[in-house]
Amino acid sequence: MSIQEADRVDVGVGAHPLDPLTAREITRAVAALKNDLASADTFRFVQVELHEPSKSLLRQDLSTIVRQADAVLIDRATGASFEARIDLDTDTVSRWSQRPADTQPPIMLDEFTECEENCKKDPRVVEALAGRGLTDLDLVCIEPWSAGYYGADDQGRRLMRTLVFVRHDPDDNPYAHPAEGLIIIYDLNSGEVVEIEDNGVVPVPQATGNYLPQHVGPARTDIKPIEIRSPEGRSFSVDGQHVTWGDWSFRVGFTPREGLVLHQMTFRDRDRERSVINRASLVEMVVPYGDPSPVQSKKNAFDAGEYNIGALANSLALGCDCLGEIHYFDGIVSDSHGNPFTIKNAICMHEEDDSIMWKHYDYRQDTAEVRRSRKLVISFIATVANYEYGFYWHLYLDGTIEFLVKATGILSTAGQKPGTKTPYGQTLNNDGLYAPIHQHIFNVRLDFELDGPQNAVYEVDTVVPQDNPTQSCFYTVDRLLHSEQEAVRRADAGKHRFWKVVNHDSRNIVDEPVAYRLQPTDAITLCATPESWVAKRAGFATNNFWVTAYDESERYPAGDPNQSHGGAGLPEYVAADRNIVDQDIVVWYTFGMHHVVRLEDWPVMPRQHVGFILQPHGFFDQNPTLNLPVPEKKTDSDHCACEG
User: Fold this and answer.
1) Is the separation of the CB atoms in 419 and 431 below 8 Å?
2) Beta strands across the sheet bearing 456-463
3) Could you state, in chain order, the average pLDDT of each consecutive group of 10 residues for the chain (644 residues)?
């Protein structure tokens, strides 16, 4: 059996062109590169992923589509980075180009480990640690962060900027003990410390902040188990990466940079399969800190574009991360040498009960009708150093789509002199520990295809008319957004603003264009001023809503942010001010968590969540859930029409 034939067996006969690369396909793509332009031992593989076919190709005969892989590489000897495309039918490199010099590719997993190990070998680092009384290197935690860019000449180096923490013992929480003021600048390509910034010694806080069972005492016993069962089996079906549930149909994808991707989302409306969204994923997030101190002011991490958040996905466990009747999807990525590795159970999918879908009690007839709602949850969780982020897509039976980000983990802490309290964060104890104020700002890319690819967008505000005879009149006004720059918008709670994506050529029962609306919950923007480097580099975070004309090369709202100098991504995409009326369009929504730290967030943070909702808005002619089954009655009640 040839390699190509074996790989087809590996992915299954008739594998869909949007299915993620298999381990065997990654191996073949890497081998093709090593046998060609990347033969030097100094090449490292940042990411290898499926090259997704164009939408026009996907509308044709799928059997004619050739599977291709895209790779990002870096030559550590020269510092140059490259993008490549590999034809997996012929194992040949069909495209090779050098990336711009003003950015760096995302940081690879093993570079975090290399950075910590090499920093501890540097005599200057050892001396700086000893000056703070930190002599047991096994207990010192050197935490690499992306270096960012702040106007200084980085001389083309691929840099990381590390923070320093220490443990009292091997299972101690290091974030209770920051070595504030000490920064190590490290070159990932050369493997050497470039510079040590010592901003003065602040006493290392000594009070502990442990949360493990052996430190917090016996677990309470009054919390009884909850079981979620599906005695008649699951309501969803899975064929490879394709999922059907209720009237929903979609494909599950996974990339190193984005993690979970949902493709080709359609909804069956009676006897008609209707397209809703072609592709949906979280594409970027930035975490800017509001503290002006030397160490904290340069903490502005882009967790997707700088760290490849998909590659940081957890292997999920039943009963812990997910509960119920679960279907898992693995995530397959590559290490820096191009070897594939599998993140087992990277994506979890299950159903959850969701209270009532609809109910009415007719008091005149003393009768009631009630139907229960449920949602399909597709999720993954990633650990980015101290924080955990859970990303949850919820699909509902009435066509609603909800996206939530759930944040937990441990605060990134700082030290101050005992007895002082900074205004730029929450003091956590009386021993000099605090956590700076910061933001978690996310951006989701929604490639709409509402009843077809020709869509438009309206901004909808609620207004109070000047001629208001009862002083209580109000109504909504729709404003068509004609061009990309006109569609750069912010949420406005005072106007109850939302946005509608419509298809003018598809009409509902009252002859209005069918639509979905984006309800802008948690619509925060950057607090940093436009002149700040983080605002220049994360332009997407300065507004909540963007619309662009579809271009398959425009995938990321901050471009490639690692050490970028700013201006890339959405600000660059909308500069042409293209027409977006009755076009193939992409909607980008920015939202997030404005994290004013609480004492209750320490030593490990209870889950916080933010997100948004997409709802049918005249997409259907009436409530699409009238045919839900009558639920089984469990207790006697006069206000329930459940089956007894």
Assistant:
1) no
2) 327-334, 340-362, 367-384, 387-396, 401-409, 605-616, 513-519, 498-507, 456-463, 475-480
3) 39 74 98 97 98 94 95 97 97 96 93 97 97 97 96 84 97 97 96 95 96 93 91 95 98 98 98 97 98 95 97 94 94 97 98 96 95 97 97 98 98 96 97 98 98 98 96 97 98 98 98 98 97 97 98 97 96 98 98 98 98 98 97 69 59
Would you list the DSSP string of 76-130? TTT--EEEEEEETTTTEEEEEEEPPTTS-PPPPHHHHHHHHHHHHH-HHHHHHHH
What letter represents residue 253's amino acid? G
> Cβ contacts of residue 319 below 8 Å, gap of 6+?
none
Q: Could you tell me the pTM of the whole model? A: 0.96
- Non-local CB neighbours of 430 within 8 Å, separated by 6+ positions: 207, 418
Measured from the Cβ of residue 337, the count of other Cβ atoms closer than 10 Å reads 13
Instruction: Please give the backbone phi and psi of residue 107, each rounded to the nearest 5 degrees, phi first.
Output: -80, 135
Task: Give the three-state DSSP class for 163.
Answer: strand
422/434 Cα distance (integer angstroms): 8
All residues at 6 or more sequence positions from 320 whose CB lies less than 8 Å from its CB, including other chains: none
Helix 109-121 with 123-130: angle, nearest 10 deg: 70
CA–CA gap between residue 264 and residue 271 (Å, rounded): 18
Note if the bond before 624 is cis, omega within 30 degrees: no
Sign of the C-alpha dihedral, residues 516, 517, 521, 522? Answer: positive
* Residues forming the active site: 303, 387
pLDDT tens per residue, range 624-644: 999 999 998 776 665 665 665
pLDDT attached to residue 342: 98
How many helices and strands (H and E) does the chain possess? 8, 30
